Amino acid sequence: MRETIAQALKDALKSKDRLRTGTLRLVNAAIQDRDIANRGAGKDPVGDDEILQILTKMVKQREESAKAFEEGGRIELAEQERAEIAIIKEYLPSQLGEDEVRRAAQAAVAETGAAGLRDMGRVMAVLKERYPGRMDFSRASAIVKELLG
Questions:
Q1: CATH class of 98-148
Q2: What global pTM score does this model have?
Q3: Which residues of the chain have pLDDT under 70?
């Protein structure tokens, strides 16, 4: 995954695509920051799962920023954030639909033997381990809460 992003950055530089170049540089910087943090903690360099987590977090941050810009009347900045989201999402696996999330949550509840809301953390841990970058975990959390509540 790291190589794919590095190659995409080279291609964007060659084609002089400023938005794509800037966005991919931010992605690389976030990955390098996590590498440095891991090295300091004595962990391995960032793997594909962690890269997916980083990309997912970056998308979420940009969605929040776009919403704030829109509410503040700064439409051009909101549009730029959305353009960056589109670029970042190209490197994320396709998201699971509502029905798929519900089925995965039901399976995780059954597998963990969760009986109530106090077991929600175990269920969410299973989902986060199995579906990194492929599931909106805030939506999954609401579904799990509904199933356990």
A1: mainly alpha
A2: 0.74
A3: none
